[in-house]
Amino acid sequence: MRQASSKRETSETRIELAVNLDDPTEVNIHTGVGFFDHMLTAFARHGRFGLKAAVEGDLHIDSHHTVEDTGIVLGKAIREALGDKQGIVRFGTSYVPMDDALGFVSLDISGRPFLYFEGDFKMQSLGNFDTELVREFFQAFAFNAGITLHARVLYGENTHHKIEALFKALGRALREAVNIDPEIKGVLSTKGLLE
């Protein structure tokens, strides 16, 4: 079973997180940021991952540290859960419609972190979630997971729908990439390793 736990404690946040790539039974997320909980739940459910996260952050300031640091810890946990990456499909791509919006994510579990992000949000915040933090989360996640990640909102009007489409697409693309194909011997790389 591919699973991992990760913790982070700073003067700004305290995070305990566990991920299970092969058992989606338990999804339990509490960050203190309602919309972010909703997005992480969508990511886990549509990626068919188990995900537990208990986050305490300096929300009296804003939600920036909570969201970014959760991306850091989630990325590290995914990277650890993947282990030596033997047999994984490696690449994943997903288009997700959410009513008026269409989100796109394509990724490569390459060991070479990179983010291309394109998305404009009319609303500056949804509850206590600042929408500019979507990019911050994706960057923190990609760089700590060792993933090359391209994410775009192709179109849409409703800010909630656009962001939700991206998080669902991230879950679905990651699910495709972490799947194990028994026909792949070792790692899917001409170099013989993914790092």
UniProtKB/TrEMBL annotation:
The keyword Membrane does not apply. GO terms for molecular function: imidazoleglycerol-phosphate dehydratase activity. Pathway: Amino-acid biosynthesis; L-histidine biosynthesis; L-histidine from 5-phospho-alpha-D-ribose 1-diphosphate: step 6/9. Keywords: Amino-acid biosynthesis, Cytoplasm, Histidine biosynthesis, Lyase. Its EC number is 4.2.1.19. Belongs to the imidazoleglycerol-phosphate dehydratase family. This is Imidazoleglycerol-phosphate dehydratase.
